[in-house]
Structure formats: C-alpha cells, structure tokens
Design a protein that fits this description.
Number of helices: 15
CATH topology of the largest domain: Aspartate Aminotransferase, domain 2
Number of domains: 2
CATH architecture of the largest domain: 3-Layer(aba) Sandwich
Strand order of the largest sheet: 4-12-11-10-7-5-6
Bound molecules: pyridoxal-5'-phosphate
Strand content: 15-25%
Radius of gyration: 22 Å
Structural class: alpha/beta
Helix content: 25-40%
Shape: globular
Largest sheet: 7 strands, mixed
Distance between the termini: 40 Å
C-alpha cells in the first residue's frame, strides 16, 4: 500500500501529478523545484502523515516532531477532537461571508477574550495579517489622539512580524527587507532590552510599541520580564499602545496562554496565529480599552477570516489545550527539557554556548556554525527541529511531549552534535 494512501491521495491524483512512484522523495523534490517558487530552502524529507508528536515520511520512516510546524501544531498532529470538529464542520458549513453573523466566530471571540484579558477580536488568516491589523489599528488610534503625524511604531532589533509590507517594515532585520525597499515609512527600531533607547525614541508621533515577548525567528531571544514591565509603564506614561506579537510565543507555549501574562504585563493589543487552530490557517488581532473600538465598518476586512471551518478548528484546539492541561505540561516538561539541554552544554562547552527560552520555546546557541548540519543529522536520527542561522537550534515541540520524549531527543542530539563537529 502506498504511504500516500494515508493522505487520501487517489491513483488519479498521483497520475495527474506525474508521480509514478509517489513515495520517491527525489521525484517529489524535482517536481517541487520545477513548479513551486523557490522561496523555501527545504530539508530533503517528504512528510506524508502525522499523529500526535510523530511524523512519517514518504519512505515510512518515523520521526519525533520537536518543531510542530513552527510552533503550529501545539496540541499535536491530527488530534482526534480537532480532526472530528473540522470534519463535522466541513459537512455543515465551510464558509459564510463576514457580511453575516457567524455563531462559531462570536463564541470563539468571547473565549479568546477571556483567555487573554482582551475585549474584542478581529479574525484573519495568518500572523502577518494579524500584525497588519494591529498596525492599521494603531495608526488610526494615534491619528484620533494626536493627529496624522502620530503614526510611528517602534519595534525591536531582531524582531520578526511577517512578510506582508506592513509586517516586514515592522520586522527589524535587514535581510527580510533589502530586496523589497522602500519599506512602509514610520517604523523605528531599537535594541531589545534597552529601556533608555526606547525611552529616547518615543515621541509625540509614536502611536505604538510592537514587541515579541520572546523573539522566535531571530533564535529565541526573550525580552526580560523587567524590560517588558518597564515598556508597559513607558507606554502608559507616553499614551502609546503596547502591542504584543504572540504569534509564536502565545497559545500556551511558554506555560501561560500569553507569554506576556507570565510577566504580569497586559498589552493593549495582542496578535495570535500559528498554534491557534492546530494547523488550520487562522490569525487574530485582539484589543482592549479604547483600542478595541478603533476600527469601524469598512476600515478593515478579509474574505476568509473567521470562517466557520477555521473557528471550529480553533474552538476544538482550545478544548484540548484546557482539557489536557497542556500549559501546565509546557511548564513541567519545558523545565525538564532545558535542564537536560544544560547538561549537554556542560558536557560539550566547545559546541554549545547557551540554552535559553521558556516553557516549550527553547533555543540552543552553538559555539560553532554547524546548526544546519546538526538538523540534518537529527533528521537522520528521526528527530525534527530547525536551525536559525548558522548557530541556533530551535525546539518548538507540540505541548503534549513527555520527559521521555525529551530524553530521546537529548540522546540523539548528543550524537548529532558529535557527528556534525567531526565532519570536515
Ligand atoms: C512572532 C511572529 N510574528 C508573525 C509571524 C508571521 O506569521 P505568518 O507566517 O503566519 O504570517 C511569525 C512567523 O514566524 C512570527 O514568528
């Protein structure tokens, strides 16, 4: 039986795709190279099935997934409760225009507000879109307070907010911007955890400060709790919105529903996506206070946003997160995992420089530029993680992982580190 039969691919699908042997990863890679725009440097693996914390490739090999998409499949691959909710809703009503009420959207909005301390939600389809909404909301809010010049937004060096023009302009990393200049004007960047630099940059023209409580794409760099609290105080003093981008660090990954909650900080605006519907595309921009009432009919919108199918997946994901106490698991297993990684650091100081993160959002800074090789070595050993640049390994497992899973990954990581360093 073909491994693709798990995915429901029929003989006809496969013939149409020109794949006589659908399990052949080289043929799939060739087709991909020929017909898919080359925006991703893909690892040489073809995943065809997932269940819980496990993935299987087209050759039938099993992997322990310590990446979960990239912090997407938080309650595990194809969780039966989420899969059933999607299947049921797909047979009931997939889409309804936002011109009409949608009961699942209303119920989900209430539930997200309760979990985050926010008051209103705008639904969208991705993290970048959630940040676009936050940027537009902040500009309109600033204009209503201090006029059109109050449209500037401050973000932090190393941040990542997405690929659309507003979001990439907010992203303070030249490598994502250079080819597409000029950027949207009005964004200023200051170093993370540098309160004085932020204080000096805030002016009458600043409408918002946008921050990831833990930077993910730059290699797991947390804002310190003291810094985040001080940013909150500065924003209050200067009458500036505090927007937390929790697209990667939110949805329970750090042990609290929002990473900002773990620091006792309540933002004015929060953005979510990735883990919100366990892999079904969805994003959300949430706000409280007068920020929540800033956007009016016609200001913003999206055809697919908050459609019944996505809402059913998100509601089911929240059920699992709560019922299976996965935030608590993220704390206990995350603490254990980082301790074990610290052991590896102590054993191999010439290879491992630092372990950082919170809950199940963990980065390992290597002392040598071998991160991609280590990832390939781990794939060969049946473990999925990813590399950020040359020196950081990023671990973002589903929140269902156990201590035993961590032990398995740490044992294989030791081998992979040894094998990678010994290569020429
Ligand atoms: C913190 C953060 N914000 C925004 C985004 C963009 O999300 P998306 O890829 O869903 O547009 C990402 C994606 O990695 C992210 O990590």
């Amino acid at each position: 039986m073909s491994v693709l039969s798990h995915t429901g691919a029929t003989g006809t699908d496969v013939e149409n795709a020109g794949l006589r042997d659908p399990a052949d990863p080289e043929r799939i890679a060739a087709l991909d190279r020929q017909f898919v725009m080359g925006t991703y440097a893909r690892y040489p693996v073809v995943f065809v099935r997932g269940e819980g914390k496990k993935l299987w490739d087209s050759q039938g090999r099993e992997y322990l997934d310590f990446l979960s998409g990239i912090a997407v499949v938080g309650v595990g691959h194809c969780h039966p409760h989420v899969a059933d909710a999607i299947a049921r809703q797909a047979r009931t009503l997939v889409h309804v225009s936002n011109l009409f009420h949608n009961p699942l959207q209303a119920v989900l909005a209430e539930r997200l507000c309760r979990l985050t301390g926010m008051e209103k939600v705008f639904f969208c389809n991705s993290g970048a879109e959630a940040n676009e909404c936050a940027i537009k909301l902040a500009r309109k809010w600033g204009r209503s307070r201090r006029g059109a010049s109050c449209h500037e937004i401050i973000t932090f060096t190393g941040s990542f907010h997405g690929r659309t023009f507003g979001a990439v302009s907010a992203t303070a990393q030249p490598k994502y911007q250079a080819a597409f200049a000029p950027m949207v004007p009005g964004f200023h960047y200051v170093p993370l955890n540098d309160l004085r630099a932020l204080d000096e940059r805030i002016t009458e023209n600043t409408c918002a400060v946008l921050i990831e409580p833990i930077q993910g794409e730059s290699g797991i760099h947390p804002a310190t709790p003291e810094f985040l609290s001080a940013v909150r105080a500065l924003c209050d003093e200067a009458e500036v919105l505090l927007i937390c981008d929790e697209v990667q660090c939110g949805m329970g990954r750090t042990g609290a529903f929002l990473a900002s909650q773990a620091c006792g900080v309540v933002p004015d605006v929060v953005t979510l996506a990735k883990g919100i519907a366990d892999g079904f595309p969805m994003g959300a921009c949430l706000a409280r206070g007068n920020a929540a009432d800033t956007l009016a009919p016609g200001d913003h919108g999206s055809t697919f946003a908050g459609q019944p199918l996505a809402c059913a997946a998100a509601l089911a994901t929240l059920d699992v997160l709560e019922r299976e106490e996965l935030m608590q698991n993220a704390v206990t297993v995350g603490t254990y995992f980082r301790e074990r990684l610290h052991d590896v650091q102590r054993e191999m100081p010439d290879r491992v420089r630092e372990v950082r993160g919170l809950g199940l959002m963990v980065g390992m800074e290597l002392a040598v530029p071998i991160a991609r090789t280590v990832v390939l070595q781990l794939l060969e050993r049946g473990v999925v993680v990813n590399a950020v640049g040359d020196t950081v390994l990023r671990f973002l497992p589903p929140l269902i992982v156990s201590r035993d899973d961590c032990d398995t990954v740490v044992d294989r990581l030791r081998d992979a580190l040894r094998a990678s360093v010994s290569e020429p």
